[in-house]
Write a sequence for this structure.
């Protein structure tokens, strides 16, 4: 009988829900790449309007709001990417665009931390992006706001500042693939499920972070996310 784990199962990754003591259990983290035209161009790519494409982060990459995060290993070019995060409370396969919003519990502001030097190297060598995107503590997320309170934001400022200086300043209205289209497209790739999070892409202005930096992101009508970077820990590299 398989009734005992050989060690305690890991703690359930979760995100706070604004104004309550309840929290949202995280199942998986999916991320859309190059979903704002100005960011695609700053990355040297032509924006693709045909279909969104995705990568993932592990669920336990989530970091709660206002945390201190150690500057990650193996990079000299850690980048910030402010993003609207969608939290699903229903899933399914082949979800029609017209029903996609019904799957959404709520929204948050999150940062897709990226080891840009590792990503560029992976691109050049035709290797997977995973270790440039899905490293430990790579997904700081602010408190979720339920769609029942704020609706489904599809326009408004999405911005990020470092040490009080604005770096990214875009508008949700510039998403190439809006949230319902993202959910529909992703549900063709995997069976979506309650607890899944989707990072929806970042506007232009991504750039490097350094130990000691204080980072604040905000999305109009949704909320904020903040964190501070501390020195590298654990290894000399
Ligand atoms: Mn991103």
């Amino acid at each position: 009988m398989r009734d005992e784990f050989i060690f305690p199962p890991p703690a359930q990754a979760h995100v706070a829900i604004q104004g309550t003591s309840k929290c949202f259990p995280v199942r998986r983290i999916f991320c859309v790449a190059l979903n704002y035209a100005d960011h695609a161009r700053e990355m040297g790519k032509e924006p693709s309007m045909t279909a969104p494409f995705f990568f993932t982060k592990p669920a336990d990459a989530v970091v709660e709001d206002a945390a201190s995060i150690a500057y990650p290993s193996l990079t000299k070019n850690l980048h910030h990417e402010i993003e609207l995060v969608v939290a699903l409370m229903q899933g399914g396969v082949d979800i029609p665009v017209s029903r996609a919003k019904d799957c959404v519990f709520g929204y948050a502001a999150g940062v897709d931390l990226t080891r840009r030097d590792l990503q560029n190297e992976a691109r050049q060598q035709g290797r997977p992006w995973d270790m440039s995107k899905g490293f430990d503590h790579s997904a700081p997320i602010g408190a979720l706001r339920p769609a029942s309170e704020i609706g489904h934001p599809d326009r408004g400022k999405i911005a990020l500042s470092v040490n009080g200086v604005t770096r990214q300043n875009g508008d949700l209205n510039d998403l190439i693939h809006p949230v319902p289209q993202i959910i529909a497209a992703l549900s063709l790739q995997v069976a979506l499920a309650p607890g899944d999070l989707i990072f929806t892409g970042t506007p232009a202005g991504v750039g490097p972070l350094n130990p000691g930096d204080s980072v604040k992101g905000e999305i109009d009508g949704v909320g904020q996310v903040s964190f501070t970077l501390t020195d590298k820990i654990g290894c000399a590299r």
